[in-house]
Amino acid sequence: FTAALASTEHLAAMTAWVAPSTYDEDLAMRGGVLLAGTSYEWTRQQVRAGLVHDGQEDAPQELLPEPMEDFTPFLARVGMAEAARRLARAHTAGGHAADWVAHPLHDAYWESLAYPWRALAGLGVPALHVAGWYDLFLGGTLRNYRAMADGPAGAGQRLVIGPWTHLTFDGHLVGRSFPGGGTRESGLGELTVDFWRAALGDGEAAARLPRDPVRVYIMGADRWIDLPAWPAPDAVATAWRLADDGALLAPDDERPAAGSTSWTHDPADPAPTEGGQMLMGPAENAGPHDQRGIEARDDVAVFTTPVLAEPVTVLGPVRLRAQVAADAEDAHLHAALTEVLPDGTSVLLTDGALRLSARGGADRRDPLVPGKPVEAEIDMWATGVHVPAGHRLRLDLAGSCWPRYAVADPAGGAPVRLTVLHDAEHPSELVLPLIDLDAHPAAL
């Protein structure tokens, strides 16, 4: 995209696979929280590539510890700032990690590196955008698509979202397989070629393209559907309220959502990462992992619906709007949406995080007043899943998700008490877009 913004003189069309939209919000941070594991992993790959390019041997063990598959103990021992300094000493290709740590705000440094996704709105080139429900650039790809769909080449934009991570495209992920979800079964290769040919004036190829510009895989229903736009125009945003005793109330549930729920975040023992939309370690680390081990911890608050009497299909952007307080001037809030199967398996669907002092924007800090609630909104990106009757939906809240996200330590190592309020004066709700799946016939 950056090259296209420089010149489109010889450019007829583009295909953008799992493309980010910003450096600081897609690769380095999310919601004002440093993506520690991804930042370290990405930089380490650049360092090793730089060493190979220069014909040098691998860096000393104290700079790039083995095994590559699990760098968590190293990061926990030395901290992200020191790990970044060691990467810089190993090779000049690692210097950016220290800059990322040193610039937690969206400031002039990030502006100097800005990937100008907003400028895509003025780019008059057809583009095929490809994303995965479990890819770390899902949010960025959706932002890119929306920017270009609103621009002069809006009619030439297409979007495909499959049950993929950043590295796995066959529809078989750890925790769940998706029949027909691979790129081969979906015909993505043929669609891509027809898209290119159509852009060059091939009428037969244009006739073979789907009528609607958006094609998504609905997990659980295990089928592809086509949409006239993203988000789905017929999606209805519904508020699922947090309530006492770990209840997540459906929109038609009239029970009062009284009270509050509290838990303690200990920086010395953070809640760990288990799957999700990430690029960190082996490919199998990402995806729809079972969250039961995380949910069993005392520092994770769990809100679950009753068993669904009717199926629901969630398709589109997911948001958490919560009233949150902490007994410190800052804290992190991590939110995860899961599908709970009849056997108790809690399958991760999508998630998000927010540094509470960054609730007003990535370019500023608004410290908390200890004990005083603030309104926080977490962008949990999006999902597409059919949840059958007999299953449940669940929201998990925690103060950490380590090592994917940096650990908040606002009190110098002391535990921090977090509280989410959900009474009449301080409502907290999970906003889910629902569609009528029967109104969308299978595309393939």
Would you give an account of this structure?
The chain has eleven helices and 20 strands. It is of the alpha+beta class. Strands 10, 11, 12, 14, 17, 19 and 20 form a seven-stranded antiparallel β-sheet that branches. A five-stranded mixed β-sheet has the order 1-4-5-8-9, sandwiched between helices. It is globular, with a radius of gyration of 22 Å. It starts with a helix and ends in a 9-residue tail after the last strand. 49% of the residues are buried.
Count of beta strands: 20
Compute the gyration radius: what is it? 22 Å
Kindly state the mean pLDDT as a whole number?
A: 94
List unreliable stretches of 5+ residues.
Answer: none
Structural class by helix and strand composition: alpha+beta
